[in-house]
Amino acid sequence: MRALITGITGQDGSYLADFLLEKDYEVFGMVRRASTESFERIEHIRDKITFVQADLLDQLSIINVIEESKPDEIYNLAAQSFVPTSWNQPVLTGEFDAIGVTKILEGIRLLNRKIRFYQASSSEMFGKVQQTPQNESTSFYPRSPYGVAKVYAHWITINYRESYDIHANSGILFNHESPRRGLEFVTRKITDGVARIKLGLAKELALGNLDARRDWGYAGDYVRAMWLMLQQDEPGDFVIATGKTHSVKDFVETAFGHVDLDYHDYVTTDPRFIRPAEVDFLQGNPLLAKEKLGWEPEVNFDGLVRMMVDADIERLKNK
Ligand code: NAP
Ligand code: GDD
Hints:
Layout: E1 2-6, H1 11-22, E2 26-31, E3 49-53, H2 59-69, E4 73-76, H3 85-88, H4 90-111, E5 116-122, H5 145-164, E6 168-173, E7 176-177, H6 186-198, E8 205-207, E9 213-214, E10 217-218, H7 219-230, E11 237-240, E12 246-247, H8 248-258, E13 267-269, H9 287-293, H10 301-317
Parallel strand pairs: 1-2, 1-4, 2-3, 4-5, 5-6, 6-11, 7-10, 8-13
Antiparallel strand pairs: 9-12
Helix pairs in contact: 1-7, 2-4, 4-5, 6-8, 6-10, 8-10
């Protein structure tokens, strides 16, 4: 089997590449040109991946990489994925995260409609939640340009499924984290901050809204669900979540507690990290994924926090 992964240099792309290589896939990774490489997350498997260069902004480049890699499956993980940036760059976010998806689907439509497609949809689409817990039929109410772009991408995926009979799937993934998570996302910012404070490299950690609640899982578990969706006879939409919700404060308390520190002594709040509109609460219902895909998460909240704090301490100790 041949798979093309867009966003292979990102958190999810790297775990998915690990997973597919284990399954003996031939893996093609779409990367965009940069003056310096950002391959840290895939350094360990670099020689096993065939890199193809394209950008979500460029239709012809996408057609060329599909033609070159001749994939059985395409996983579209590439995106401008940081919610705060989407207020500063709303047009670019729309071009990448909404129109970019149409460009890949057009490539499939033109070249080979048998290619199975995975779209990285997001619980951000639920935004100001209309129902709790959120499932595949919960209405969307996005609260950021990022969320709006992802709603477009979700619906264009369904449209290509229904219009052209393409095996196009939308995974509505709730927040998932790991030691490979980008440093600006709150979980990694916290675990990196805890490690620095524990090692005497920093004295405080400035955060925004500590009351926001998320359904946090482990990225390694979530890429398995992506693959399972593409192995089904029928394409579909699936919520992937743990079903549990925790506040940012819970995450902070658990992370500091893991290294025997009291977060009250170190955490400050800074209005710079407060968003123009907030998603206050997310909690997914992964029942459909359990029933149809046989998918369940293996790492729980405490295990995830410990894994991330330990990895950051190890990384900074060896610097
Ligand atoms: P990430 O770490 O930010 O990775 C994003 C990837 O997209 C990077 O490889 C980046 O490449 C690539 N990219 C960005 N713009 C591009 C462009 N114009 N052309 C080609 N590649 C481009 O994100 P992630 O956490 O792995 O998330 C993967 C996907 O799942 C994203 O679509 C995200 O929106 C979605 N999602 C994530 C979560 C989550 O909790 N992690 C939850 C729901 C949905 P560079 O290395 O060149 O920057
Ligand atoms: N980033 C960040 N930095 N967030 C903070 C901070 C801070 O200093 N302090 C509090 N938060 C709060 C945010 O206000 C938000 O409510 C929550 O922590 C989570 O923020 P992020 O970790 O940045 O993730 P996100 O939920 O906005 O978006 C992530 O999950 C989505 C799925 O729901 C991203 O991975 C998206 O790409 C993904 O679609």
